[in-house]
Each structure stands twice: as structure tokens, then as C-alpha cells.
Write a structure and sequence with these properties.
Protein name: Glutathione-dependent peroxiredoxin
Enzyme class: oxidoreductase
Mean pLDDT: 94
Number of domains: 1
Function: Thiol-specific peroxidase that catalyzes the reduction of hydrogen peroxide and organic hydroperoxides to water and alcohols, respectively. Plays a role in cell protection against oxidative stress by detoxifying peroxides.
Structural class: alpha+beta
Order of helices and strands: EEHEHHEHEHEEEEH
Low-confidence stretches: none
EC number: 1.11.1.27
Keywords: Antioxidant, Oxidoreductase, Peroxidase, Redox-active center
CATH topology: Glutaredoxin
Radius of gyration: 15 Å
CATH class: Alpha Beta
Number of helices: 6
Distance between the termini: 23 Å
Number of strands: 9
Helix content: 25-40%
Strand order of the largest sheet: 2-1-5-4-3-8-9
Oligomer: single chain
Length: 169
């Protein structure tokens, strides 16, 4: 399992781009994790699924609301990561009004999630392999803080905890 001090696993995540520019075409684009984190401080929070109750009512809105404060604390980007496809993450981002605040990163086949060891098996509930709920502060591709939630909890991966950690470094 991924730990503080570890480098993020190699691979790619997908993001649905609605406005062409900056070398990104419309639709799903793939982003290399190593290249995307190089020289940056990134707050990553992961959750079991788009449009799910706690994720939609608390997790994503908290990071949207704290985006400016996180940037003021030295965070270059905020990523929301879920085992969903880029189209779903794009639609959820529109609904949550994340544009310019939180990048909605898709791990459609759970490759990144498996590589981190932070999977959550929800097969019995008809949802397959998903991501555990967690957050991490990543500096230049290296995990500096890692906050993993206990099953069914939302206590340590919230935006306020991440903000305090970003301010403390």
C-alpha cells in the first residue's frame, strides 16, 4: 500500500476537457501522472464514486469551497480521483461547479487505485472495485501526507484537514 514518502505510481489518469486549449482537445484526455505532478504541489482526494451521497454533498463541495485557501497555502492543483470514466467525472464536475477549482480525474479501469493499494471492493453492492476514501498532499510526485478514511467514515480526508496540512508544511 502507498505510504508517506512514496512516489506516486506511474500511469495515467483521464480528464474530460470541455474547452479546447493548452494542447488539450475536447473530450477525454489522458495525463501522465509523473509529468503532471513534476514540480507541483497537488492535493488529491479520492472517493468511491461520482454522484454518491457523501461524495456529492460533502467531499467535493468542501474542496471547491476551499480551493482559494488551498492555493494560498501553496497547492498548485486539486484533483478529485474516482474509479469512474472521464465522461461521468466531467458531468459530475459540471454539476458540482468544479471548473477552475478542482480537476475531476478518472481512473476508469482502477489501474492507479490498484497500484496504490487503496482499493475498496464493492462488488457485493454491484459497484465493482472502487477507491477507498482518502486524501493526500503530493509534492513533486512524492506523498507528503496521506489520510485514509475508515470504512463508511468521512473524518480525515476533508478539505479542512488538507488545508491545515498544506499550511503546516
Amino acid at each position: 500500500m502507498l505510504n508517506v514518502g512514496d512516489k506516486l505510481p506511474a500511469g495515467a489518469l483521464q480528464e474530460f476537457i470541455e474547452v479546447e486549449g493548452g494542447g488539450c482537445s475536447l473530450g477525454p484526455n489522458s495525463f501522465d501522472i509523473e509529468a503532471s505532478t513534476r514540480g507541483k504541489t497537488i492535493a488529491i482526494f479520492a472517493l468511491p464514486g461520482a454522484f454518491t451521497p457523501t461524495c456529492s454533498a460533502q467531499h467535493v463541495p468542501g474542496y471547491v469551497a476551499q480551493a482559494d485557501a488551498l492555493r494560498a497555502a501553496g497547492v498548485d492543483e486539486i484533483w478529485c480521483l474516482s474509479v469512474n470514466d472521464a465522461f461521468v467525472m466531467g458531468a459530475w464536475g459540471r454539476e458540482q461547479k468544479t471548473a477552475g477549482k478542482v480537476r475531476m480525474m478518472a481512473d476508469g479501469s482502477a489501474d492507479f487505485t490498484r497500484a496504490t493499494g487503496l482499493t475498496l471492493d464493492l462488488t457485493a453492492r454491484g459497484m465493482g472495485v472502487r477507491s477507498q476514501r482518502y486524501s493526500m498532499l503530493v509534492v513533486d510526485g512524492v506523498v507528503k501526507t496521506l489520510n485514509i478514511e475508515a470504512p463508511g467514515k468521512f473524518e480525515v480526508s476533508d478539505a479542512a484537514t488538507m488545508l491545515a496540512q498544506a499550511q503546516a508544511r
